[in-house]
Target: DNA-directed DNA polymerase
Amino acid sequence: MKLKPAEANRHFAKPAPDTTGTLIYGTDAMRVALKRQDLLKNLLGEGAEEEMRLTRMLAGDLRADPAALSDAIKAQGFFPGPRAVFVEDATDVHGDKITQALDDWQPGDAHVVVTGGNLKPTGKLRKYFEKHPSAFAIGIYDDPMSRDEIQDELRKAGLNQIDPEAMRDLEALARSLDPGDFRQTVEKLSLYKLGDPSLLTPDDVDACAPASTEAVLDDLLHATAEGRAGELGPLLTRLEAQGIAPTRLAIATTNHFRTLHMAASDPEGPNKGIFRARPPVHFKSRDRMTRQASRWGAAKLETALDMIIEADLTLRSTSKAPQMALIERTLIRLAFMAAR
Model:
């Protein structure tokens, strides 16, 4: 059966006993691996590897030994407790080998965990697991972590006393990092606060957070909003060398200036507006963007947004104008506006 995100999280946290198997698939191998680790840990408990209650195999090996999966599912170990077979890197090419083994599954056999990449909805593996009455198909997508997932990571790390502002900063950080990097940051925070019973504060988060995410792009947006036109050329050259497309620059600039406009338009002032931004502003940029919004003002920011949107539409049209030159000219015009 196909599980929705909330159902999938419950399954990962507390796998149902005596079920046939779980297919976990998605384009981000790290996200898939993290969910697979959670599932196996919660399904098997501690010591599964040492007690030989977990069998690992590559899907590609089933071509040479088609019976390997069936044998592993039926095998009985010396140690009591639940058993699992983990089949890695499955594609629809391996579909027949895997589904034939699962057709013979009986209560008491090992739970089969299969991971794969971007499997097609019409492919044999997905269709089999989605229609199976006691197996599960779970797609892992590149969405930002939900608040429940963030809190679950914090809880597992023993971080229960958290200042509300620090929680906002963590939510912003989770939206800028992939889940694996965020988990490493939480582990670092846990060690940082070891033996310290006080609340986790924004300063603690700042001390443990990665130095920067997309630092050059952030520098470009801040230089534009702060009127430092002379810095734009070198920054754009670095971004172009990294393969950043002009349309991505236009989207990032639009998002930045929309946040500034929202903050500048807030009836309680830019400081309150920045705190209310969705998605949350990264904690390292919050004070800086508050100053930018105050300096620009709502009316001037509306003019700036018109310029950015016009450039974005031109980039997406059939215009033969050099795209990077077009976005560079727009950013320079914005920087000169900020400097006035």
Q: What stands out?
A: DSSP finds 16 helices and five strands in the chain. Strands lie at 21-25, 54-58, 84-90, 111-116, 135-139. The first strand starts at residue 21 and ends at 25. Residues 99 and 156 are 35 Å apart (CA to CA).
